[in-house]
Design a protein that fits this description.
It comes from Dysgonomonas alginatilytica. Keywords: Isomerase. This is Protein disulfide-isomerase. Helix content is about 50%, strand content about 10%. It is α+β, with helices and mostly antiparallel strands. It has one domain (about 5-230): Glutaredoxin. The longest helix has 17 residues, at about 85-105. The radius of gyration is 18 Å and the shape is globular.
Length: about 230
Amino acid sequence: MYIFGLYKSFYMSFTVASNLKVEIWSDIACPFCYIAKRHFEEALAQFPHKDKVVVEWKSFQLNPNVPEDTHGESLIDSFVREKGMSAQQAEGLFTNVVNMAKQSGLDFHMNKVVVANTINAHRLSHLAKTKGNKTQNDIEELLFKAYFTEGKNVNDKNILTEIGLSVGLGKDELENLFNSHNFHDKVSYDIQEAGVFGITSVPYFVLNRKYAISGAQPSSAFLDILNKAYNN
């Protein structure tokens, strides 16, 4: 169920100077997270105070038990194996998602998706965040595109390195990232924080720790809550 209203947590609501902070709990393997990203961006383009908005992506894993090496298993085969549905049922489900994405200007190729554990993609996102929110947002876009459009394995460290280099991250810091456990703690913290807040599904948008909206809502809903959060 989509949520739209006052955000309750164990933390006090806050603002950063006069900025409006938007935290987005998301997973690279979530098609509705990519669609919601587009809808949010459409709303942000219409928001008169968009220069005051600071966007921070938060880690969430829909299925943290996906093995490190899935041997290139397709999403359809994964649904058949894990959910007990037929290949025809899975294809029908994916067709609906593809059509929804198309209406948002996205080109999904669900038949090309390679099932992958997203932990390393999230670690890369956290590294990107150290360079600024825009760099993190650029990384998130490229990770979504790699997974849903290009059929790339987003747990492949060579692919993740290419994505990192394309947004200006250094080769040495990328090598260090993937030869260490750096940012594992950041990913874990985001997921634990989601649990504290009662977040069980994504996408989940939190604005100034006061308002929240979840799901691939239309851009009008995102614009509405941006205005509410900014004016209250």
